UniProtKB/TrEMBL annotation:
InterPro entries: Aminotrans_3 (IPR005814), PyrdxlP-dep_Trfase (IPR015424), PyrdxlP-dep_Trfase_major (IPR015421), PyrdxlP-dep_Trfase_small (IPR015422). Pfam families: Aminotran_3. Belongs to the class-III pyridoxal-phosphate-dependent aminotransferase family. Keywords: Aminotransferase, Pyridoxal phosphate, Transferase. The lineage of its organism: Bacteria, Pseudomonadati, Pseudomonadota, Alphaproteobacteria, Rhodobacterales. SUPFAM superfamilies: PLP-dependent transferases (SSF53383). It comes from Pikeienuella piscinae. This is Aminotransferase class III-fold pyridoxal phosphate-dependent enzyme. It comes from the Bacteria.
Amino acid sequence: MHDLPNGLPARPNSLEEHWLPFTSNRDFKENPRLVVQSEGVYCWDHKGGKLIDGSSALFCCPAGHGRQEIAKAVYDQMTTNSYTPHFQMGHPGSFELAKRVTALLPEGMNHVFFVNSGSESIDTALKMVMAFHRANGDGQRLRFVSRERAYHGVNMGGVSLSGMVKNRETFPVVMPNVVTIRHTMTGKDLFHEGQPEHDGVELANDLQRHCETYGGSTIAAVFVEPVAGSTGTLVPPKGYLERLREICDEHGILLVFDEVITGFGRLGSNFAAQHFGVTPDICTMAKALTNGCIPMGAVAAQDRIYETITNASPMNAIEFFHGYTYSAHPAACAAGIAAMEIYEREGLFEKAAALAPYFADAMMSLRDHELVKDIRTIGLMSGLEFHHDGVPGRRGAKMQKDLFWNGCHVKFTGETAIVAPMFIATRAHVDEIIDKIRTTMDQQLA
């Protein structure tokens, strides 16, 4: 066991007491993969090995690990005012962060409700939708539309909307009145950069068929990830999001974008809404909001959503009976403000956009490998999908573990590696990620 770069010894510790999320606990604890230090685009494991972070942790850290500016901002806040609840009171940092976030959003989205995670942002958005329709006298709108292969977090609202079977089959008691439309992975456009050419309008018309089946006036909202991230970077075909917007407008349905992954520069624009030129009514976010430094999420709403809900109640009355003890925690707000300053000062969204073409070409250089089934890229995110070995998920699990010991972290879902470099990454860093992925693939065939 080697000492770490900071001079501290790497010490083993007991693992059994911690029940890890989304982890094969028994397998992990036999051969743990522990990160004990991180800086920039690199991490160090408990054995002293150095890894390049190929997925920005979980898409959370585009500005890199160990940003001292964020650490100092949090320290200063914690030694000034460590906690203020936001029930009938507040602190200045939440208003400043909300102002900075709305400046990045499409025009008209000027109201932000802070939560503590992407999962909480989805449940909050569901409640906003319900409150809006109730205030409008549309209480009959009880249906929600989601997609197959969708991921909207792990709270019960998100599980109800989920289209990934393993995220819901053990938890059968979910919200009623949720219907799904098809996902956008048709198999017609393999190895594509950017948006596929085929079937965008036709796939979106699934929503129109639901309107004709159930009545558009019974549907409250449609929840979609502009790019379905956790299920393997499924990029919407051309015309798809635009057609969803048209149908929603025609039937008075709210369109909710889950931008927990795509928000804050991942596609090279502020949010995916601007990248695709489609503005939702409500937008959820988390992850890069604080550069992953402190848990935080948020929900942004168009002015009409906020005004309809607040104006439906008498003055001096609570308008929206929802919130969390740690909503807009002072330390999280400080981290968010510092992250926004870094993104702007260093032009990181622009750097992401500039690196994206090189990243796409680098990912596509892997298409000749016999293990590779498909590659999909947009902005600084890509889905690298492998042929399975007869047991779904087994190859991906082995690839992720082997890749770690080969010096690279990449997030996997089933047989798909989701590669998402940091915005501070250089072409050399991209090359390093690709080289380690190819080396690991070659080892699978040895």
